[in-house]
Amino acid sequence: MLNQAFESDWAKIYKMDGDGPVERYIATTLETRGICNDPKIAGIDYTDKLQQACVAVLKTLDLNIKESSGVVVNILRGGLNYGLRHALHDAFGWNRHTTCFISAQRARDNADPEEWHITENAYRKVYLPRAASLFIGDVVATGTSLRYGLNELIASAKSMETDLQDIVFFTIGGAIAGKILEEVDAECRRLFPSYRRTVLVYFEGCFGVPDLESRLMIRLTGTDLTRGDAVMAPEFVDSQYDNPAYPIERCTIYDAGSRAFHVSEYAEDVRGYWKQVLDLADQGVTYEAYLKDRFPSLDASRFVGTSLRDIAVKQINAMTSLLQMQ
């Protein structure tokens, strides 16, 4: 299902199967394996590592995009985490590329909590050159913010008489990102005669997103990015054996905005999850049983004798320490 496409000293990039118009890749880096495995990586440490991973992929992919057409799009606030403005400078030496901003905060619908809508979308600063290649980064679970942001950008490009040429999108996210970008790719090819390509880069995997039918003991629908039903880089799968806590995290990223900009809120969220796991352990759920729930394809025999309770306590203490630093 994955074929190695590019490799460098900084990253390995796999091409995902499929003949659609969107070029789908899974990239693995030392930095994003750390982010997706270890929730203690937060704040500046988190955003620095994510920016370094973007640099690694930019230096490894074959994009052939000019500095004069480069536009970094920050869909606030999650897009800021990727540091693409600086990443393009570090990767290519660019200094005069454009940066624009669109606010788009998603919220659950009060009538149906499994539906989402956009709030806090009043702020925008969009500058587009005559020919534009967009670089965007965001976490994608439901795709609500991504769909809104891309629609707004296409509308802005039409009104400014800009010729969109490329979209390069980085994500820690799920399959909906590919579906949305396929729709956008078709629209761009219809509207912009020089449109060339849409590139989607998943860091570490194309992860699952639980819904009401998901049979997980603990889940946060429409938000969590799970390993159990994901397509992942082999290196990321191998890294799960480094620590028995890694494969049973509730989410590969948790809330990306608070992880960067409100660490105490983020740490409370992660600690709350591990308290739920501790409750399961006290009810008699074993590590082997919980691993089968979270990541059934992993080899449980490599974790013989692992105590679910001990892991939960250790993770709770780690998040408590993170909170005490505030």
Topology, please?
Layout: E1 2-7, E2 12-16, E3 22-28, H1 30-37, H2 44-60, E4 70-76, H3 84-92, E5 98-103, E6 105-108, E7 116-119, E8 124-125, E9 131-137, H4 144-159, E10 163-174, H5 176-191, E11 197-208, E12 226-232, H6 234-239, H7 256-261, H8 263-282, H9 287-294, H10 308-324
Parallel strand pairs: 3-11, 4-5, 4-9, 9-10, 10-11
Antiparallel strand pairs: 1-2, 2-3, 5-8, 6-7, 11-12
Helix pairs in contact: 1-2, 2-3, 4-5, 8-10
Task: Write up what this structure looks like.
The protein is built from 10 helices and 12 strands. It is α/β, with parallel strands linked by helices. It has a domain at 2-207: Rossmann fold.
Outline of the structure:
This protein has helices spanning 30-37, 44-60, 84-92, 144-159, 176-191, 234-239, 256-261, 263-282, 287-294, 308-324, and strands at residues 2-7, 12-16, 22-28, 70-76, 98-103, 105-108, 116-119, 124-125, 131-137, 163-174, 197-208, 226-232. It has 326 residues and is α/β, with parallel strands linked by helices.
CATH architecture of the domain at 2-207: 3-Layer(aba) Sandwich
Give the overall silhouette. elongated
Supply the helix-strand structural class: alpha/beta
CATH fold-level name of the domain at 2-207: Rossmann fold
Order of helices and strands: EEEHHEHEEEEEHEHEEHHHHH
| Number of contiguous helices | 10
What is the rounded Rg? 20 Å
- State the distance separating the first and last CA atoms: 44 Å
Question: What is the residue-averaged pLDDT?
Answer: 90
Which residue ranges are poorly predicted, with pLDDT under 50 across at least 5 consecutive positions?
none
Largest sheet properties: 10 strands, mixed
| CATH class membership of the domain at 2-207 | Alpha Beta
